[in-house]
Amino acid sequence: MRLNLFVPVALLLYGVTTPAANDPTSSNQVLEEVIVTATLREQPLLVTPLSITVLNERTLQDAGIQHFEDVLAAVPNLNWAGGTSRPRFFQIRGIGEREQYEGAPNPSVGFLIDDIDFSGIGMPATLFDVGRIEVLRGPQGMRYGANALAGLIVMRGQDPSDELGFATEASFGEYASESVGAVATGPVDALKSSWRVAVQRYRSDGYRRDVFLHRDDTNGRDELTGRAKWRWQPSDDTTVDLTWLHAKLDNGYDGWSIDNTRVSLADRPGKDAQTSDGASLRVETKAGSFARLTVIAAGSDSDSEYSFDEDWGNERDWAPFTYDFFYGSRRSRTTRSLEARLASPDATAPGAIAWLVGVYGLDVEETLNEGRQGVYIDPFTPEFSGTTDYRLRSTYDARNVAVFGQLDGSFGARWGWSFGLRGENRDADYQDRGARNDVPRATDADEKDTMLGGQATLHFDASEHLRTFVTLSRGYKAGGFNLGQAATIRPRFEPEYLWSVDLGAKGEWLDRRLYADVTAFYMKRQDMQVSTGVQLDPIGDPGNYFFLTDNASGGRNLGLESSVRWRLTRQVEVGATLGLLHTRYYGYRPAGQDLSARDQAHAPEYQASLNATWRHPLGWMARVDVSAVDDFYFDVPPNPARSNAYALTNIKVGYEAAHWSIHAWGRNVFDEDYAVRGFFFGNQPPSFEFERYVQLGEPQQFGITARWEFR
Q: Number of structural domains, the chain?
């Protein structure tokens, strides 16, 4: 391990001390300009009055290996909850979902892949041939409405090229990990268009061993991703982009152990699989002489399967007790969205005003079939014995319609302003039919909400390369209904509104070799939605949970997020991020406990990262990434469990030629044990005492990636 760490550190020091690195002309090596595309108007990152992180193609290639999970630590105040084979439940500034077991999806963090909505089901976020990921922090009511109370994550694949090109890539690593992918792109001059096709297959045994089944692959991964893009430019003023995405992730799920290790005793390991097909059409064209029209249509069909061994054991290890429970669900989701907006040219002259108006519609239909079967026989206390047979089929349909508008102007050469409003109506219907131990269940519910949000921004350019801003924004999240037994306690929960004040600055210095930004924020949550689970009777049926969403009177989230990029020399670039977060509840007393002095769930008080990248003119490179996360609560009472603070180190070293490259990489090189999800409940017979259980993140792993390109 020491040798693996010594190599990149030695290379970095060598790069700093070589004559080329100290060449006076190195000051001409500036940072590239970053353009933000996820906002209503494309604009440079430097002038975007928003707390945003943009991970470009180079960053994704240097810091990532396979999935969005690899680069999450590079985004301040972005956390995620495990309980799945890949991250799909995110928290931004401490706000977001941690799981979804029963129907009625209602995300707080929006997730788009090439304009296709994957909010809550973002497993297809593989990194192969991805051009950028943008994370917008804070309420994005103007941009995406009810599904972006906490923020928005936008992933975009590489665009087609006007030159013929081909690339292939292969990786090999520990735990029998291997991947192979290919990309082809080129023009069709006769049709004034270009195309791009990318396909990748990734396989791994996973990092857990099932000693009962003598298998190493019960937590394995088998992920296929394909993307095709067509760009047509019939005129200088019109661009048409058509994207098709196919993702098939057939992953195992065997993530829990009684002793909180990576050794499993399960006799029936589960699955976490998702197959998605999606398409999007984006048209940008000139609308007469006064505006530009953007139309985005997208849709997807996703089928997923999620299951796990609820007792985490087998008949041999649980003897003399008979203890066998299994949960399984199949979910089908269809999304259709349409957005159209007209935007005037940017206001450049003092006193000029730019305007933007638009409409948006989203329809989400989801069908869920789930079941739990189990038996518990206690030979010493037969009165605790019993069986469970639970089956449910639910259907859900939500329709969102929104109108929005925005004005941008300036008071002079340095002062500018922006003001926008969005009104949204959501109409949701839910229905389920099922039975628990032959007791029938039926639910019919509907919810209609009309919500209003927006933002007002004032910015000041202290110099040509320094912008300061203050933004007042209001986000919202629709209300809904609780299901099953939870409905007898609280049938409905109210919409949540969030007021946020962001005060920030962005600047470039040292002849554009240093970029830094910092944003301080204060967010006040009204009718804060809080999700929790209650274990009804742990003895004999540990999985007997019902899940409840309630409204606290409010909450408070405040903190700071900052990032720095510095081109130290022609060969060395360093970067850092910092997220600080302080959260509290107002007026929330679950199980009689006053939570006014307790942090919100999955809201670590600090997250930080450091990275250094060295590239030599002869082609050698090395990169080191270090990230740290504070401890945090896994959930609200009755779950008092917390994670432990941890730090992870990743490395990459390699050689890059004109048409090929080879890299050796290491993830979690110090083999740190860290938890990505945790619960506090009873799961061990015969007493079923409540204990802390955690799902561990990925352990140490090393591998090699080779790439060849023709262009």
A: 1
Which residue type does 336 have?
R
Asked if residues 467 and 458 have their Cβ atoms less than 8 Å apart, the reply is: no
Measured CA distances, 4 to 490, 610, 666 (Å): 55, 18, 8
* Structure tokens belonging to residue 251: 């992953």
Tokens of 540: 């004999």
Per the document, the length of the chain is: 711
Tell how strand 270-287 and strand 322-343 pair up: unpaired
Tell me, what amino acid is at 359? V
Give strand pairing partners of 192.
none
Do the Cβ atoms of 184 and 197 come closer than 8 Å?
yes
Looking at residue 631, its amino acid is D
Containing domain of residue 415, as a range? 2-710
Hey, CA dihedral for 53, 56, 61, 67, is it positive or negative? positive
Which amino acid appears at position 393 of this protein? R
Give residue-wise pLDDT tens across range 117-159: 999 999 999 999 999 999 999 999 888 888 899 999 999 999 9
- Taken in order 41, 45, 48, 53, the sign of the CA dihedral is positive
Q: Which amino acid is located at 200 in the chain? A: Q
pLDDT tens sequence across 635-680? 888 788 999 999 999 999 999 999 999 999 999 999 999 999 999 9
103 within 8 A of 445, measured Cβ to Cβ: no
399 Cβ contact list (under 8 Å, min separation 6): 361, 362, 363, 364, 426, 427, 428
Question: Does residue 208 sit in helix, strand or coil?
Answer: coil
* Spatial distance between the Cα atoms of 38 and 572, rounded to a whole number of angstroms: 29
In contact, 156 and 198? CB cutoff 8 Å: no
Residue 158, burial from CB neighbour count under 10 angstroms (0-12, 13-18, 19+): middle
**Rg for the chain, CA atoms, rounded:** 26
Distance CA 391, CA 313 (A): 23
540 to 193, 307, 438, 586: CA distances (angstroms): 64, 20, 18, 36
How many other CB atoms are there within 10 angstroms of residue 489's CB atom? 11
Domain CATH number, residue 515 = 2.40.170.20
Q: Are 295 and 280 in contact (CB under 8 A)?
A: no
